[in-house]
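Hi R.,

Here are the chain sequences for the assembly we discussed:
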Amino acid sequence: MTKNLIPLWEVFIRPRNGLAHKHCGSVHAADEVMALQAARDVYTRRGEGTSIWVVPSAAITASDPENKDENFEPALSKVYRHPTFYDIPEDVGHM
Amino acid sequence: MAGTAAVSREALTAFLLRLADDHLILGHRLSEWCGHAPMLEEDLAMPNMALDLIGQARSLYQYAAEVEGRGRDEDQLAYVRRERDYVNCLMAERQNGDFAHTMLRQFYFAAFMQPLWQAVTSSTDEHLAGIAAKAEKEVAYHIRHAGEWVVRLGDGTEESSRRMKAAVEALAPYVDELFESDGVSRAIAEAGIAPDPSTLRPAFDAIVGPVFAEAGLDWVETPYGQTGGRQGRHGEALGFLLAELQYMQRTYPGMRW
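And here is the predicted structure of the full complex:
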């Protein structure tokens, strides 16, 4: 019963301008407004963030762990895909 | 604020202690939820707010101790006065009741404090204006958080609505006291330090009204309000609260963390 009324939300926090929002956990809340408040109270108590996103956990489509080998192993042997042959100009900042 | 009349040390101390006691006592009440909230999220949200209140109380006690100039420090003001020396409003000391009751009490107090802090940011008293600048942001969040709960519980399930209505009934007699005016509050207002509470009612109503409308709650008129907190006349709830609040300083006088 409480599960239906108070669903789960995934929380993403952006630590400061220029960085991406990063997943940091989840909260239970009745709706998106309460989810934002709960996220603020649970995950930004020590000055962790300047922006919060919340997303209904049910809205996330996840890859199947069973397909992990076919999904991810083929990339392991292709080191040439790593951009290690360039110098990144300092002005680019965070990549 | 207009006035610039001089204010006596006694009046300023009395005013600061009222504010400080409101924040300490209500902060303590909120902290009682720690570990008992209905969900983890609120188990953090309520102590967060409690810490805001106790932090504000601390700044106010420190300043009161300085203004009073009788050698007492913040701990002595907070922890070793007698029950009749506390001048908090009665609403702050009321037992928590259920979650709806606690949230509505928090909402009322925040709706009272926000316009007050806002005005005090331009106080003639610079020290107090500094405290207000920090507190103003904290109380804005308290209004939002508690207000959202008032809406959701008031306009929620049959049970939540019944409980929120019961909270409105139970707290109705304690609202008017917030806006009482007396010699101290008038002297403070005339000196341009803080607005007289009696002038804050329209701002309070402007915050509470829309939330009640959205929550489907009706304002309950009460034939006569409870009063006496500002003169140190309290309900029995405060004695039990102080017994716990003061335990450490009474048992180990002068103890420090």
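The two ends of chain A are 44 Å apart (CA to CA). The interface with chain B takes residues 5-6, 27-31, 33-34, 37-38, 40-42, 45 of chain A (CB under 8 Å).

Let me know if anything looks off.

Best,
T.
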